[in-house]
Amino acid sequence: MTAAVATGIVLAGCSSPADLPPGELAADPTCARIIMATPDSLGGLERRSTTAQATTAWGDPAVTVRCGVTPPGPTTDRCLNVENADGTFVDWIALEGDDPDLPEHARQGQGSWSFVTYGREPAVEVVVPVEQVSGQPTAFLVDLAEAVELSTAERFCVGATDIS
C-alpha cells in the first residue's frame, strides 16, 4: 500500500502534455534538429511534453513551438528582425488576434502572441500566452533563435526603406 501511495504522489506531480496539432511539414528532418536544439528551460519555464511530432512546450499555460507549419508567403503583416549576439538574425511575422493564419490553439485562453518565421523552410511557429509574459514576448524568440537558425533562410523581410 505504501508503494501505491508513493506512486500516486509522484504521478500527481507530473503535468499533462501540451495538446498541439502537428505542423503540416512536421516530418521534415530539419524539424527534428530544431526541436532537439531548443533549450531545456525557456524564460525560467521548464520544458513539458507535447502530443505531436516536431513540437515542444514550456510552462503552464504553455509557451509552444511547432516546426513544419506552412511558411508564410509575401505579406504586409508586421515583421520583426530578431538579431543574435553573433550578428545573425531571424525574421518573424507577428500574427494579430484576428489573422486567419493564427492557429486555433493560439486563440484559446486570455490571449497570446503568435509568431511564425519568415523566409525559412520549414517554418517555425511560437505561441506565447499572455500569462507567461513579464517583459517583452519577443524575449522568447531571442532564446529560440539558435535552434531556429537550423532552418535555412531563403527570403528576408523587406521594409519600406529597403525598396527603391
Automatic annotation (TrEMBL):
Domain of life: Bacteria
InterPro entries: DUF3515
Protein name from the UniProt record: DUF3515 family protein
Lineage: Bacteria, Bacillati, Actinomycetota, Actinomycetes, Micrococcales
